[in-house]
Structures are given as C-alpha cells and as structure tokens.
Amino acid sequence: MGSQLTFDVMHMKILVTIITVLMAPTCYGEECEIQGKAILWAYDACLWGFETDDTLHPGVIECVEKSEKFMKSVSACEAKRTFKRRICDFVKEHKMDGIDQETCMFEDKALGAIS
Fold it and tell me: Which of 83, 78, 42 is CA-nearest to residue 63?
C-alpha cells in the first residue's frame, strides 16, 4: 500500500508540473493595451520620424535596427508603448485634427501620413 501511495503522489506531482508549464504562458503572459507586434510599431515610429512612407529609406532602416536592439532590452509591451509614444509625439507636433495624446495612445490603427 505504501508503494502505491508513493506512486500516486509521484504521478500527481508530474501532472501538476505539466499543467503549470502548459498554463504559464497564458496565466503569466503580459497583457498589453497596445495591440500588434512591436516591430510594426517601431517601423511606424521610424517612418513618422523621417516623414516618409519609404520603408527602404536609409534613415528608416537605421532607426528600425536601433529599435530592434531596444526591443531586446525591454518587454514587448514596453517597446510598443515607447514606439507608440514617439508616434503620438509626432502627431502632437504636427497638430493632427481631433487626436490628442491620450486618444493617440489608445488608437490601434495607423494614424496616416504627415501632411
């Protein structure tokens, strides 16, 4: 009876470990108010920064490369917040009608070209 109990406890521990490992990404995954991939927000911020829609612009390419290095040093959500904040600063600087800093931060779609 003692060996059966030890065997059942061992199986229970294995089962709990498996469940914990499988649930970890969903339970502990970072929730972020900004949807989409950080690299896309980085591109958008770089395009705004160089006032172009040319993804092959040398300045944009260099900016994105720097952004990729930055993304490795922070969480994905923090990177998205940083890039989005940069975009919103450009929006504010160019005084886009009807879009303030708070509205901008929670807007999930691209805000269009600088006119």
Answer: 42
